[in-house]
Amino acid sequence: MPLLVLTGCQWGDEGKGKVVDVLAGSADLVARYQGGNNAGHTVVIGGKKYVLHLIPSGILHEDVNCLIGNGVVIDPEVLIEEIKALEDSGISVDGRLFISQNAHLILPYHRLMDKTMERLRGKGKIGTTGRGIGYAYGDKIIRQGVRALDMLDKERFAQKVRIAMDFYTPIFEKVFAEPCPGADDMIDRIFPLSDQLREMIVDGVTLVNQYLEEGRRILAEGAQGMMLDIDFGTYPYVTSSNPSPGGVCTGLGVGPQFISGVLGIAKAYTTRVGSGPFPTELVDNAGEQLRKIGEEYGATTGRPRRCGWFDAVVMRRSLQISGARDLAITKLDVLDSFETLKICTAYRYKGKMVGLFPSGLEDSSDVEPIYETLPGWGEKTSGIQTYEELPSGARAYLERIEELLGVRIVIISVGPERADTIIRCPTFWS
Ligand code: GDP
Ligand code: IMO
Ligand code: MG
């Protein structure tokens, strides 16, 4: 019963979409278990670029089915746009994209709350994507959410929206002095979308468990990354869900014993979008070079990503939380032209050396990263197909990461294209 979890180990944008696409060719179902359209997963196939926000990256393989799990928050307007964009590119989702009926919806008032709260936070803002993620999950937790299955019945949908609006309208009007859409307008705008989604709404828990019973292969696609996890990340500068593998059980409805493997995904350096601590951030030329060569601009918001050296301290914490012992390292090619490279091996924190990312760290200036310098390799790695053909400096860099973290690097990505991938161990599904 193979259920392989693919999860980001840094602050998101590790290249999960690309790695999912590479492995989806040997999967039967790809299922997203958390997050929403705050995610932006880019896949490049034969020079054509696809950016997926809600739909699992497996959709680009025509024989693979995809599920948006109950742990995801779905903006129906965005989902319909995304389906249309795929269909315009010749990719049909018909009969192979499913939505778990228990997934919660992001509605216009969630987006409005997100944007208004960020504005009010001023300098202390989280730097959210403004997609309403935190407020949709908030409503789920306080039990006033609207779910995908509510879109199957107009009366029920209208009733749920009215209950939520009774809560939000006075907040917008009296507290924020902001205009707020009326409940009827919202119902008239969103409910008609159910015509296009109705056929896809299923009992996702039964779907996933049927695949498992039949011994078919499921790839659980994470969004964001461990350091953005609501429980384990750099709170409050996090997202509002659990990208960590625990989120798979609650986000799809599967027992933990069915998880057959966890593949952690990390960039060969580190990036972050939004506010919050980032100890190895580079604000100099090297950071600019990483951003430029790595094209580090957000796939969702277009914001420049903050860039820095590979951080083994962050990674040790992520490996501890996720239990991953196998890693995919992406964007190795971005480092090709650097004369020297640094890896952060420890932090000096409160007068001591620490190897694990400290819980509760809110400010990078509370830690001093300790670096090890390695020589660069000065050769192009894109196009290389086997580990042995990589320049010796690149292998030394990867092997030092393996040694510092006690993991196996099983996939190395050397370019955005599907083909630019070195697979060292073909037995992910065992
Ligand atoms: P995700 O959110 O984890 O799926 O990652 P994103 O798609 O947001 O960001 C990763 C970016 O790097 C995308 O633009 C990918 O096309 C690109 N990418 C992925 N792997 C590689 C690689 O090995 N080398 C290079 N140069 N780009 C890559
Ligand atoms: P993928 O799946 C990088 C960040 C935002 C912000 C914080 C909270 O592409 O890796 P939110 O809108 O979720 O309430 O914002 O989380 N963030 C991401 N950063 N990649 C992502 O997704 C992200 N999704 C959210 O920038 O700092
Ligand atoms: Mg992304």
Give an account of the 3D structure:
This protein has 430 residues and is of the alpha/beta class. It folds into 3 domains: 3-100 and 200-261, Adenylosuccinate Synthetase, Chain A, domain 1 (3-Layer(aba) Sandwich); 105-195, Adenylosuccinate Synthetase, subunit A, domain 2 (Orthogonal Bundle), CATH 1.10.300; 266-423, Adenylosuccinate Synthetase, Chain A, domain 3. Helix content is 31%, strand content 21%. The chain has 12 helices and 20 strands. It has helices spanning 16-24, 76-88, 108-121, 133-141, 154-176, 183-190, 194-197, 204-213, 246-253, 285-293, 312-322, 392-405; strands at 3-8, 29-32, 41-45, 48-52, 65-68, 73-74, 97-100, 104-105, 201-202, 218-221, 261-267, 270-272, 306-308, 310-311, 326-330, 340-349, 352-354, 367-375, 408-413, 421-423. A hairpin with a 2-residue loop joins strand 3 (41-45) and strand 4. The N and C termini lie close together (9 Å). The model has no long low-confidence stretch (mean pLDDT 96). 6-O-phosphoryl inosine monophosphate is lined by residues 8, 11-13, 35, 38-41, 126-129, 131, 133-134, 223-225, 228, 237, 239-240, 273-274.
What's a concise summary of this model?
The chain is of the alpha/beta class.
